[in-house]
């Protein structure tokens, strides 16, 4: 079967991360543009909020309030009436900037830290995952992750899967009633694929943005590669499933290398492809 073909949906962004489909629209963080945008299914774009310390992962509390990672100051911010309100600081719990995040249906946010100053040229150190409760309390729930990146949570709130970019794997944890993570296991050894952002579908498979491999890859629990959508000469950064039937793969792509991310080039865009299996709503 031929792979779905990507189509350009929206262009002219600096560096996009954190795509989410909620409330009949796509939400994205323009990290180096320092803004969060929403886009309707027909592509109409609106500014949600400006995030001076650089936005990344996006999530939503049970009442619909948006949360956004503020990378540089290592805080989690609520968006209230178009303004940022600090939800929690995790600066005392992490090394390096914080990055992506997933929020489960109970309002627990799982935030990943890089573990070291990647763009400053520091030596590699493992990162961690920090749990931020709906009341804003924070604690570390997983350590020794090789650059934690995109995370997802299953609809029953029982399993979290996170991409370890430098580990080239997806790692799963069982979620306890209090949000603690246990039972660490490998969901998928990705071989040569380098995972960035990920999204979960209704069959329990995960779409992976394989940054270094210029592809979106669908992988099943256990590591079987079910589908590959090439991105040509563009890097695959992150993805989510959305649209009215949750069968549109929204893929964020970037025309450049890792060293180009901080240069302010307007080299990021959103591309779409229609897929057979609908999304599960995470992240």
Structure, explained:
- This protein is mostly beta strands and about 280 residues long.
- The chain has one domain (about 5-275): Neuraminidase.
- Helix content is about 0%, strand content about 55%.
- The chain contains no helices and 24 strands.
- The chain has strands spanning about 5-15, 15-20, 25-30, 35-40, 45-50, 55-60, 65-70, 75-80, 85-90, 100-105, 110-115, 125-130, 140-145, 150-155, 160-165, 170-175, 180-190, 195-200, 205-210, 215-220, 225-230, 235-240, 250-255, 270-275.
- A hairpin with a 4-residue loop joins strand 7 (about 65-70) and strand 8.
- It is globular, with a radius of gyration of 17 Å.
Overview features:
about 280 residues, mainly beta, Neuraminidase, 4-stranded antiparallel sheet, 24 strands, about 55% strand, globular
The CATH fourth-level homologous superfamily: TolB, C-terminal domain
The CATH architecture can be named as: 6 Propeller
In one word, what is the shape? Answer: globular
The stretches of 5 or more residues where confidence is low (pLDDT under 50) are none
Strand percentage lies at over 45%
User: Would you list the SSEs in sequence order as H and E?
Assistant: EEEEEEEEEEEEEEEEEEEEEEEE
Examine the coordinates and then state which fold CATH places here, giving the name of the CATH topology. Neuraminidase
**Estimated structural class:** mainly beta
Q: What percent of residues adopt helix (DSSP H or I)?
A: under 10%
